[in-house]
Write a structure and sequence with these properties.
CATH class of the largest domain: Alpha Beta
Oligomer: single chain
Radius of gyration: 23 Å
Order of helices and strands: HEHEEEEEEEEEEHEHHHEEHEEEEHEHH
Number of helices: 10
Largest sheet: 7 strands, antiparallel
Helix content: 10-25%
CATH architecture of the largest domain: Alpha-Beta Complex
CATH topology of the largest domain: Naphthalene 1,2-dioxygenase Alpha Subunit, Chain A, domain 1
CATH superfamily of the largest domain: Naphthalene 1,2-dioxygenase Alpha Subunit, Chain A, domain 1
Number of strands: 19
Number of domains: 2
Distance between the termini: 15 Å
């Protein structure tokens, strides 16, 4: 993010803090239909057209650095094998033998020189090519060049692994361009995993996502932590191309209001004051939210587990501390952030039950919550208007309020 963009966002924060009503040119937002959170048909459309055709994060590459390093990944209910080839390229294959469909790899992770199916010992190279077939003489029409492992799209950015089940997907860096251009200052590739934790939640994945796309709730749900630290009225929402978005909320640290002891905290020195004075949370469509902080931060990933359940995966990263134990700061911070997340999750299950009760028609979204509406607009753009069941679409309204790409805005 260039200095001019920092300045522009700071001006927006000042405007938001001082305003007495919504922007006069901003349209009233229609209800988001409640059925989007409860319909099995809509859920299946999301899986087919959104999650299976978007770049989604499959964790860090720290355990996939050497040729032969592999890890299984199945967050989309599709068994994928992530593996580093001899050519140093990271690939994603369906963990499915091309003989009779048995898993090629059964261990969650490891290192290997050859992938060998444990059913009939068909073997594959690290590049997925079929290398060996026992009793090959019995296969009259076998063409090994055509029976390699089926590949999914795979790429990395800043030490993060992304996969896309669409083999014709646009390049990852083009897809993430509106966001990653602002995150160069973080030096993601230099960070290190501190902690990983899964949180099962009894709600639709979008109910959980929605909760992290606004700060309207923090004074009610988080009165002793985030509600103290952040000024919810001084929050600038940036809508970006591709359904991505940014939320910059001014911190109250300069007022002496804080709930974390920062003595001895790690620091990412390349991050400018903009990220020290504001809590800046990015949403990478479709399911990644990260509130970046100079001390280190979590990347939150929201994975559907059916219509009414999901898992939030939290991957905490921080500056590399070298040898020895992680900094003591994390022993203080992780329980506090866990409590913040628990406050959210205690609210989300009851919301889902209300949505399924028959007494709810739709979400009434206000101006400050517009990132939620933008997210839902992009879901519909991915699915396609012709595929959406009657009464479940959202009206496309917010494109005129999306930010220009930085390269265009600078011209």
């Amino acid at each position: 993010m260039s200095g001019s963009i920092y300045d522009e966002v700071e001006k927006v924060i000042d405007f938001e803090s001082a305003r007495v009503g919504p922007r006069p040119d901003f349209p009233p937002l229609p209800e988001i239909p409640g059925g989007r959170y409860t319909s099995p048909d809509f859920h299946e459309l999301e899986r087919k057209h959104v999650l299976s055709k978007s770049w989604v994060c499959a964790g860090r590459d720290e355990d996939l650095r050497k040729p032969g390093d592999y890890r299984l990944w199945d967050r989309l209910d599709v068994p994928l094998l992530l593996i580093r080839g001899q050519d140093e390229k990271l690939r994603a294959f369906y963990n499915t033998c091309r003989h009779r469909g048995a898993p090629v790899v059964r261990d969650d992770s490891g290192n290997t020189r050859l992938l060998r199916c444990q059913y009939h010992s068909w073997s594959y190279g690290l590049d997925g090519r079929l290398k060996g077939v026992p009793d090959e003489r019995d296969f009259a029409c076998l063409n090994k060049a055509e029976r390699g492992l089926i590949e999914a799209s795979c790429d990395t950015w800043g030490g993060w692994v992304f996969v896309n089940l669409d083999r014709d997907a646009q390049p990852l860096l083009e897809y993430l361009a509106p966001v990653v251009s602002e995150l160069d200052c973080v030096g993601m590739e230099k960070l290190r995993t501190v902690h990983v934790q899964d949180y099962p939640i009894a709600c639709n994945w979008k109910v959980a996502m929605d909760a992290f796309l606004e700060v309207y709730h923090i004074n009610t749900i988080h009165p002793t932590n985030a509600g103290i630290m952040l000024d919810s009225k001084a929050a600038a929402m940036g809508l970006m191309e591709g359904g991505h978005s940014r939320m910059a909320t001014r911190k109250r640290m300069n007022e002496g209001l804080n709930f974390v002891e920062f003595e001895g905290a790690p620091d990412i020195p390349s991050m400018p004051d903009f990220y020290r004075l504001n809590n800046v949370a990015y949403m990478m469509f479709p399911n990644l939210i990260t509130p970046v902080e100079p001390t280190g931060f979590p990347v939150l990933l929201f994975w559907p587990d059916g219509v009414g359940h999901c898992t939030m995966q939290a991957i905490y990263v921080a500056p590399d501390w070298g040898e020895g134990e992680r900094p003591a700061f994390w022993d203080r911070f992780l329980p506090i952030f866990h409590d913040v997340l628990q406050e959210d999750m205690m609210n989300l299950g009851p919301i889902q039950r209300s949505l399924e009760s028959g007494g709810f028609t739709g979400m009434m979204i206000n101006y400050q919550e517009r990132r939620i509406y933008w997210f839902h607009e992009e879901v519909d753009r991915c699915i396609g208007a012709d595929h959406i069941p009657e009464g479940l679409a959202v009206e496309q309204l917010l494109e005129p309020f999306a930010e220009q790409p930085i390269s265009e805005a600078a011209e």
